[in-house]
């Protein structure tokens, strides 16, 4: 799923151990994420995007834009869930329609929106690609060259 992480890390002359330490995870965990063996948590991708001065969508391969972003500082399951719910309601879609697209039960999807369960990044990518939802915006990202009421 994530093809650019290794290239970006190497372009920045960092080892897997250095990045793992930055993310506060074991090197073996980071290695699995980098290889795509395990679903890379969006919260950790946000940290990497800021470290590498780029954005989450670029690292996920769903955008060619490398524009650096500053993300919401308190990004977690509840924050992403709240943002997903706002987008879904604005699009006039039901939880069931999102759940059906993701191949899960509506009750499971409702856990994502309630913040009780972290939405897997691969499912977030499916929603983003299907409904043209900006993952950068879901994570509170704003381009670093723009002013924002929180970041000034």
List keywords for this structure.
434 Repressor (Amino-terminal Domain), 3% strand, mainly alpha, 152 residues, two-stranded antiparallel ribbon, 2 domains, globular
Describe this structure in words.
The protein has 10 helices and 2 strands. The chain has 152 residues and is an all-alpha fold. The chain folds into 2 domains: 66 residues, lambda repressor-like DNA-binding domains (434 Repressor (Amino-terminal Domain)), CATH 1.10.260.40; 66 residues, Orthogonal Bundle (434 Repressor (Amino-terminal Domain)). The protein has a two-stranded antiparallel ribbon. The protein is globular and about 45 Å long. The protein starts with a helix and ends in a 9-residue tail after the last strand.
Residue-averaged pLDDT, rounded? 90
According to CATH, what is the class of the largest domain? Mainly Alpha
CATH homologous superfamily classification of the largest domain: lambda repressor-like DNA-binding domains
- What can be said about the biggest beta sheet? 2 strands, antiparallel
Strand order of the largest sheet: 1-2
Which structural category do the helix and sheet elements fall into? mainly alpha
Helical proportion, percent range: 55-70%
Radius of gyration: 15 Å
Strand share of the residues?
under 5%
CATH architecture title of the largest domain: Orthogonal Bundle
Report the CATH topology name of the largest domain. Answer: 434 Repressor (Amino-terminal Domain)
Domain unit count: 2
* Contiguous uncertain segments of 5+ residues: 147-152
Alpha plus pi helix count:
10
Number of strand segments:
2
The end-to-end distance, rounded to whole angstroms, is 34 Å
SSE order in H/E notation?
HHHHHEHHHHHE
How would you describe the shape? globular
């Amino acid at each position: 799923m994530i093809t650019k992480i290794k290239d970006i890390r190497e372009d920045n002359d960092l080892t897997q151990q250095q990045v793992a330490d930055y993310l506060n995870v074991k090197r073996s965990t980071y290695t699995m994420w980098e290889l795509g063996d395990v679903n890379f948590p969006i919260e950790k991708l946000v940290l990497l995007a800021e470290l590498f001065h780029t954005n989450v969508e670029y690292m996920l391969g769903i955008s060619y834009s490398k524009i650096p972003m500053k993300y919401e500082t308190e990004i977690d399951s509840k924050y992403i869930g709240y943002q997903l719910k706002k987008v879904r309601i604005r699009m006039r879609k039901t939880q069931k329609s999102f759940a059906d697209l993701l191949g899960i039960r509506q009750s499971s999807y409702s856990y994502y929106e309630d913040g009780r369960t972290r939405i897997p990044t691969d499912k977030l990518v499916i929603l983003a690609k299907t409904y043209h939802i900006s993952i950068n915006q879901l994570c509170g990202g704003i381009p670093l060259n723009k002013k924002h009421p929180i970041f000034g």
